[in-house]
Design brief:
Blueprint: E1 20-24, E2 28-33, E3 38-43, E4 47-50, H1 57-70, H2 84-103
Length: 120
């Protein structure tokens, strides 16, 4: 498997609300602004917009909850279209970022698979 290096910057102290992801590869760079929900793909020859399906999972869950209360109805099954593996991978990246800061060095991230999700 090819080794991949990533840089993760996380700050809860910043006064700016920024939720951005940039992935830089050998042939292109992809940028996602999670706040504006816009994406861009840049290559050496071209820059193009990436089609993004807008979503705000937390807002959708809260609205669903409020609608159930307002209509006096039981909740129907609600899915935010994300599975547990995605959540486990996000937690792995955040834990590795925190450990990288603590140890002041680059960390290797172990990405869980569907077959193996470790509880800590």
């Amino acid at each position: 498997m090819q080794e991949i290096t990533a840089q993760v910057e996380v700050s809860w102290l910043s006064r700016e609300k920024r939720r951005e992801v940039t992935v830089v590869g050998s042939k292109a760079e992809a940028y996602l602004d999670c706040s504006d929900q816009k994406g861009v793909l840049r290559t050496s020859e071209d820059t193009q917009q990436i089609s993004i399906t807008p979503s705000n999972t937390l807002r959708e869950e809260v609205e669903h909850f409020l609608n159930c209360i307002a209509s006096h109805q039981d909740s129907k099954p609600f899915s935010n279209q994300s599975d547990g593996v995605l959540g486990a991978r996000v937690v792995s990246v955040l834990e590795s970022a925190r450990e990288s800061i603590r140890q002041e060095r680059t960390m290797q991230v172990q990405m869980p698979t569907a077959e193996e999700i470790r509880a800590k």
